[in-house]
Amino acid sequence: MTQKTYKELRSARWFAPDDVRSFGHRSRVMQLGYGPEDWEGKPVIAIINTWSDIGTCHGHFKQRVEDVKRGVLQAGGFPLELPALSLSESLVKPTTMLYRNMLAMETEELLRSHPIDGAVLMGGCDKTTPGLVLGALSAGLPFIYMPAGPMLRGNVKGKVLGSGSDTWKYWDERRAGKINQAQWLEVEGGIARSHGHCMTMGTASTMTGIAEAIGLTLPGASSIPAVDSNHIRMATECGRRVVSMVWDDLTPAKMLSRASFENAITVAMAMGCSTNAIIHLVAMSRRAGEHCAVGLDDFDAASRRIPVIANIRPSGDTYLMEDFYYAGGMLAMMSVLKDHLKLEALTVTGKPLGENLVGAEVYNHDVIRPLDNPIYAEGALAVLRGNLAPDGCVIKPSACAPQYLNHTGPALVFDDYPAMKAAIDDENLDVTADHVMVLRNAGPQGGPGMPEWGMLPIPLKLVKQGVKDMVRISDARMSGTSYGACILHVAPEAYIGGPLALVKTGDLITVDVPGRRIHLEVSDEELAQRRAAWTPLPKRYERGYGWMAARHIQQADKGCDFDFLETSFGAPVGEPDI
Ligand code: FES
Ligand code: MG
Hints:
Residues 42-356 form the Dihydroxy-acid/6-phosphogluconate dehydratase N-terminal domain. 36% of the residues lie in helices and 12% in strands.
């Protein structure tokens, strides 16, 4: 591999020339107390930090950024922290998904506009991983992803609690009057008790695992709990390693191929991944370039081949990410999947994936199962198509009651979330466990931002009868920690006139997961009449970011990226030449 010289670094264009502009750059960096010995001959490393006072999962990043800097300095680089949108999953309304692309734009332009040669991306909470990675892929500089690491297991009175999954479980118990207010408060205080992201196999663990499978993290990095001292050492190693990546010019374009993204799909399936993985991974692969692009059919094909072997909630019933780490973590899991992975795919180590897996071992075969003893024989996700979802929709069979995998029932339609919320606790609601609940106008444009409303609550009347699952269909997403027979991401969405907009309460809907089919039992003639009578809803935003997002966000099957951010849109942006 040929090494770059100092003069060839991007940052040298800011700092090296003997002209008045460079005088301005240097004198202002000196204003911060740095001197030529800090930058001369050294790569400048941006540390994009999604820390904020309200970034609940990244509380340790204020310290961790210092650990990364230590590594950059050890390797002879010049570290600069650049803060970016924190995107706290549990606090941002209407949904962090609306802002994923904003973080992507921010990341890309932070890297492009500053004297930066390489980057460490610090994220972990759900949308931060795809947001940061999307932007960095488009910026095209060498980068490494530093995952926040999962929280420790939750705990209440000696009982283990899992992020999200137990929230839903205890909330249903509270609605059914089985636990009181005091017990509920104890759960509230015990379910998130350390730094780090959700420790179930929700979107956060799925996406950091995917980042590792693509080759964007150090080997094993995604499984280390946030508060483990190994996490500190991993952060420091990120700083050291990215400096070498800059000298070696190991850019994403040189590193990534379709194989990198196929590996990510394989790993996602084996993890029992969050349904959100599809949207983000599709978007990331398209940003990496046409030759890397994967789509819904790649997920469905992989799901028929790859069993779920990570016994982590919500697909598994006991273990959490802390257990996964002790069982050997991501490297161990990938070593089990060896025969299904493209081991030649390059990673940030500069070596192929296969070399990173040498010596990886499973220490607990109940947590990371062998392929012949999976927790679910077919993969985590299935893609359905039919007259209700011509461009596809998604279900997570591993998290739903088996009787609903083949089901026909009458629709109960809600036009929006408030209408659903108002009806759901009405004990006179005309609903049975056979009904198919439909929520629409909750997609990328209609939500707006495709909120995680897809796990519609079971109507109170049915909860009291002991009903735990029923078929639910929406153009929304659902949290990776959710479960149930929820059909999501229906494309095209109702808000732009997709067939979901035409369903009426009482229509029969057939779901056939083995046949990968979803069908509205209404004739084409009748549907054409309904379409002619359909009127679009008013626009959600008249100004600002939401206005822009609504005009440019693509449908779920295309990854919800903005059209103008995709790699194939327009000529590439050049380097600033002033
Ligand atoms: Fe941040 Fe779940 S709230 S990962
Ligand atoms: Mg989530």
